[in-house]
Write a structure and sequence with these properties.
Four copies of one chain form a homotetramer.
Chain A lengths: L7 E4 L9 E4 L7 H12 L3 E7 L6 E4 L5 E3 L2 E6 L7 E6 L6 H17 L5 E9 L10 E5 L2 H8 L4 E2 L5 E3 L1 H11 L3 E9 L6 H15 L6 H21 L20
Parallel strand pairs in A: 2-7, 2-8, 8-12, 9-10
Antiparallel strand pairs in A: 1-3, 3-6, 4-5, 6-7, 9-12
Helix pairs in contact in A: 1-5, 2-4, 5-6
Amino acid sequence: MMSMEKTIIKYKKGLKLNDPVLIVGLPGIGNVGKLVAEHLIREFKAERIATVYSPHFPHEVFMMKNGCLRLVSNRFYLIKRKGKQDIVVLTGDAQAISPEGQYEVSHKIVKFFKEKLNGSFIYTIGGYNVSGSVVASPKVFGNATSKKTIADFAKDDVLFGKAHTVIIGAAGLMLAFAKMEKIEGVCLMGESTFFDMDPAAAKAVLQMLTKRLGMKIDTTHMDAMIKKTAKTLKELEKQLSGTAQIPAPGSEGLKPSYIR
Amino acid sequence: MMSMEKTIIKYKKGLKLNDPVLIVGLPGIGNVGKLVAEHLIREFKAERIATVYSPHFPHEVFMMKNGCLRLVSNRFYLIKRKGKQDIVVLTGDAQAISPEGQYEVSHKIVKFFKEKLNGSFIYTIGGYNVSGSVVASPKVFGNATSKKTIADFAKDDVLFGKAHTVIIGAAGLMLAFAKMEKIEGVCLMGESTFFDMDPAAAKAVLQMLTKRLGMKIDTTHMDAMIKKTAKTLKELEKQLSGTAQIPAPGSEGLKPSYIR
Amino acid sequence: MMSMEKTIIKYKKGLKLNDPVLIVGLPGIGNVGKLVAEHLIREFKAERIATVYSPHFPHEVFMMKNGCLRLVSNRFYLIKRKGKQDIVVLTGDAQAISPEGQYEVSHKIVKFFKEKLNGSFIYTIGGYNVSGSVVASPKVFGNATSKKTIADFAKDDVLFGKAHTVIIGAAGLMLAFAKMEKIEGVCLMGESTFFDMDPAAAKAVLQMLTKRLGMKIDTTHMDAMIKKTAKTLKELEKQLSGTAQIPAPGSEGLKPSYIR
Amino acid sequence: MMSMEKTIIKYKKGLKLNDPVLIVGLPGIGNVGKLVAEHLIREFKAERIATVYSPHFPHEVFMMKNGCLRLVSNRFYLIKRKGKQDIVVLTGDAQAISPEGQYEVSHKIVKFFKEKLNGSFIYTIGGYNVSGSVVASPKVFGNATSKKTIADFAKDDVLFGKAHTVIIGAAGLMLAFAKMEKIEGVCLMGESTFFDMDPAAAKAVLQMLTKRLGMKIDTTHMDAMIKKTAKTLKELEKQLSGTAQIPAPGSEGLKPSYIR
């Protein structure tokens, strides 16, 4: 019986991947990463190939609609492509709670991707908070493991060196560990205005990412989410007009959502 | 001398159990689990067979009435039955404090039950918070490790797929670990209205559980608790009538009691 | 070079003790334990024989009057007695901060006392909070590892079974571990009224303890502290008379001082 | 692939240092240590020779101006000197977050300095908070590992035994571990009035330190910072004059900055 004192990754044996890239989309600012990951998984009917459990995740199980239960986890999904690099998508319910847990989980995931899946490039997806009013077409900010990768992505309208401060959590740590392990990667961050859910920011990243990877993708589902979010926002503004102190919509989102 | 850096389980050697089931009733919402466990132990004069100590429990000892002291623990009790499956009841003073501790303690308990007691089915008992006024006959909600087990229990009026969100703590984690270890289990949650102590919710689960296991049980003691709780509640309402801001009775119970 | 990832105990080699008893007086309620320990060390000019360092103690060093510095620690001191059991006194700057740290430090200390010093009886000293006004002659409450030890101490006016709830921290944990390791012990708690410093409670325990161990002790120093505390209290009461909301003197002491 | 579960130090192989001294300047009170370290590194164009990563540091990466990213770290820099002791400067983005992390990181750094760099004297630099108005020429307070070192530094106007209470974090712990490992060291603390950034306090320490080590240093850059800070302070006072409740300038600096 395995131990639950450390992070463990259970995976399908005998996988043969074609030089895979990893796309990491976990809960975080505007939930941008998770929205992108879930859209890719849905549209490409990606198959789950591995599951990450960790004592550093919240000590919770989900009550499922069918009456079963499911432990908090991160999950790897595979999109097989003919004659092209395979795509592995990582998403999940939560990020690790403590700093120590963040280091352990992120490092084990990078190690697993490099050593077991033989991958060599990691995309991490996140949101980049900008204050002020909602932007019509969100920009995509980037940070990468090397100047070579920056040069490569700058062609695609990713803005490097324009976003400042820090990347908190897995989206940053995994790239730092990638660099340590001599593999390359880029963090793509959709410009986000503090929503708990920012599908517009997610779509901006999704389009750049799929163009880059030569994938055609139907965005109908995400477009519907964008409309719904915009509508909710307008209603909220209407309700609040005349109020002296207008809370920023979704301002509770200021608490980084990677801690759920 | 053993170490106190990890969770340890001390147990009676030479136990021979007949295909035991485990009933887990620890402190939690409405204290439902603990009330059920303690009632079973009292009524069947169950014998203590194992004790769990952990550095993840609160760093406290209890001052006992006889002047002795007792370290915070979880404890296994045995109800031997002729010609039927034996019943092992787990209860205790507290759940682990940290997420990491919750994973370690719950996993070691499941492992102990499977490997040392040769058990193969786990019941975890909890409360399920519903807001609003007190219910006359609390429902029992359920979540299980497999569809087969759900089908089996749905016959007994356990409501599957009707409760949502998450199960926090041991009642959920132990079933997740049971599933990982290929044993079955169900979480039975009594509908509870935020009391620190909800003996009515506990009785609802107790009745379903004992019927299921073919046990006859005297509920006199629990009925007395229900009456007492109802009386306390009425007095509280009387005192508070006329007050603008009425605190929900036992609203401090909103803080999950598993963290004491 | 040793590691600082775990609690370590550095001790004088070649010690030959005569069946020693351990008296534990660490920071805690009313600082009772520490006051007793420091009084014994001062009056008997006890020699330091061991030092406990732990990553679970606060990450601090003390600036000493002579310009040197000293890491937070717990310290063992020896009182050699001719023809009688030797006495080892443990005191220190702080208790461990986390529950896990409390378990580790307390367990290592008991193990060290049993295995390296060959001791077989532990006294832990603490305060027992009682609300209300200051008591003229504080009682001494006790909890012990066995009925035999209770019977032995009840003769000496220690009140067993009269104090309830829990003992938080080292004074309780060390006795729980003593019991696990088949050695005996008693926790003596001076009745205390929420002072940060309660020398009156400390004196009550000190007198019982020294009588028990057949030691003559000069309490002049402690008597001076009692007078000084009483004087401070009276001045405080004078200043506060007429104030609507009188803070309990030393009410910040409600925060258990073992976490500094 | 190395593990990220413990603190690791990556260093340049084949270094041959001449009896080096270590100067530790990490984030802390008034940021005094970090200002001193960064000034030394800038003025002497010191070369980075080692990097410390730790799961006890914040789980963050920095977005760099060139679009790359950098994991939170502490870093060793070398100042080679002809015919004199070499100087190693340690600075970084943060100190460890938890007490356990502080012990682990500080201990590993001292061990690395002694065993890998063969060093035998450590300077740690910090700020010493004094309340009240800004001082014209900040004093330098000191604490050392031995009376011999105190005597040696007291000649240079370092004030020993005048500062009290505790040194929290790496500046204190590293000297405690130096003492345990039989190497010497001194903590030099610039008198600081609660600024987040106190370049005047830093300059006071810098001058004493460079005089002591026989280094000539250009303080133009630091002088500019002192002027700028003084100007900001005056503007702040002007804005606040007439206000009933004047917040202490930089009073948020009361939160020790080593926890960022």
